[in-house]
Amino acid sequence: xxxxxxxVIARINDLxxxxxxxxxxxxxxxGTNSYVVGKEELALIDPGPESETHLSxxxxxxxKRLRWIxxxxxxxxxxxxxxxxxxxxxxQLLGFARTPADGRQDPDFVPDQALRDGxxxxxxxxRLRAVHTPGHASNHLCYLLEGQALLFTGDHVMQGSTVxxxxxxxxxxxxxxxxxxxxxxxxxxxxxxxxxxxxxPHEEARRLIAHRLKRERKVLDAFDRRNPAHLDELLPIVYNxxxxxxxxxxxxxxxxxxxxxQREGRVVETEGAWMRDAGGC
Length: 281
Fold this sequence. Notes:
The protein is of the alpha/beta class. The chain has 6 helices and 15 strands.
């Protein structure tokens, strides 16, 4: 399906096209993907950031046929574009009802229709099922295109990169559980919020689970060198395979791993210092 070029329409299948926002970066890869679904009445998944350039590209693709705007979650590169798109088209806005107050969200997101896990929206020529996948964000929804087994994953699964889990809203245990949930669905492909379509969905879910558990093992092993240790002492040990410029972001996921291990009774934290308890590990 070729390289990703912002603003250029890429056809995924006979029902779906992708248009990528011009917001490439360390956290967004080639940019945030917006997907248009349908042939007559259309739905759009993830309008992306506030961007006049992206809005123009989306409006050029949907014309007067847009009826639904779905958001996977309310991080600032996924939902803010909904306001201008809704104002221009009159489309209905759908997504999770609650927006976390952690300073990394779109505070103005208010869906016209709040969705929960398992809700199905009949869009005439196709149906989209909401799948609640907390972890990257507590209000994260994937959308399953029924009949095609195509799952729009937002930031739950990204092509070519792992997902950052940022406490307090990000939750590593919830993320692993949400990845395991994907194995229970019949899936042909994943359409991620960043990157190209992934045509081995179950293999990718298993790879990500294995990657997270391997990183968790490195967290525990790091206490063989420093015990107790602060986050910034553990960071270069646990992420010695990552470029230092990525460490500020990796620090968030490290914190998420430690919180998970703390809940499991495998590490303890006192005034910012973390300690591995040999009796609990």
